[in-house]
Amino acid sequence: MSLETGFERVSMPLEAPFTIARGTQTEAENVVVRVADDAGTTGVGGAAPSAHYGETAATVEAVLPALLDAVERVGDPHALHAIEAELRAVVNGNPAARAAVSIAVHDLAAKRLGVPLYRLWGLDPSDAPMTSFTIGLDETERVREKAADAVAAGYSVLKVKLGTDRDRELIDAVRDAAPDARLRVDANEAWTPKEAVEKSAWLAGRDVEFVEQPVPAENPEGLRYVYERSALPIAADESCVTAADVPAIADRCDIANLKLMKTGGLLEARRVIAAARAHGLAVMCGCMIESNASIAAAAQLAPLLDYADLDGSLLLAEDPYEGVDLADGEIRLADRDRAGTGARPASE
Ligand SMILES: [Mg+2]
């Protein structure tokens, strides 16, 4: 079989500037990959490169021709293991670029079989957890408004970005606006270990569920210090990039937070999930700010997760793709029941 491939950059303004402890983003630059078979069935996948992991839209575009050559060389969209291995042989880094190709090939393979990906994997859509909706850093009054808006829109699980000298004020504002919401917080590496332990005790008193990445990934002993003393469960995000990281975080956190843009593909994502389970960790899947060309694929993994944070496309002013219905936070995998990842151009 001959496969035809291509890609294009999509620049998507955000609904509002999005700030975390590391900085502010006003636009998401994704690269959408297409892989088509000779009958014209087309799979799509998105790359949402993150500068934190050394990628930009330009680095994705630079490496995609070689990655797509590898896909054409393998030639069989059902040879998912061979394709991901080939992609890793071409470049060991560039995980967002590889993820886009992996997603597109998975989408094509499942479309050719006429099933949604979760069906191909034998998963029960009713096992999917709710996704959280993320509240970025902002002026305290804006954070209060954003939390109230999220609750009004039906979201019952909120993830609040922290890592400022106003962390307590921000949580009090969110709690005030969303007294019944399930709250999680993400410090994006901004705290010292001692500060993280103190803040976790205070956050436990505000009925927060868990704390994500309290300290820098470069400080694994600090993560262990926090884990051993924290009043709340600890999730590892920046500390957990691929399956190879799981053994090292197993005695330093409670929850492994994977992302397709870190694992570099759907098979590696499922390996992270399996490795985390084998080490007794709970599993979460997060995302970057990304189009449904990739979020829809992460949503297909939802029945394997304890926690989902798949709101990346909800932060866009407009998504050129539609995907799995996440209205009010429920991941409705079976609702549209489309073959593949469920991603479609919004114009279709
Ligand atoms: Mg995070």
What does this structure look like?
The protein has 348 residues and is of the alpha/beta class. The protein has two domains: 4-114, 2-Layer Sandwich (Enolase-like, domain 1); 119-345, Enolase-like C-terminal domain (TIM Barrel). It contains 13 helices and 13 strands. It has helices at 57-74, 80-90, 95-113, 117-120, 140-152, 167-177, 193-204, 220-229, 246-249, 260-263, 266-278, 292-300, 333-336, and strands at 4-20, 23-36, 42-47, 133-135, 157-161, 182-186, 208-212, 234-236, 255-258, 282-285, 307-308, 321-322, 344-345. Strands 4-5-6-7-8-9-10-11 form an eight-stranded parallel beta sheet. A three-stranded antiparallel beta sheet has the order 1-2-3. The longest helix is centred in the N-terminal third of the chain and has 19 residues, at 95-113. It is globular and about 60 Å long. It starts with a strand and ends with a strand. The model has no long low-confidence stretch (mean pLDDT 96). It binds magnesium ion. Magnesium ion binds at residues 186, 188, 212-213, 237, 286. One of its GO terms (molecular function) is racemase and epimerase activity, acting on amino acids and derivatives. This is L-alanine-DL-glutamate epimerase. Keywords: Isomerase, Magnesium, Metal-binding.
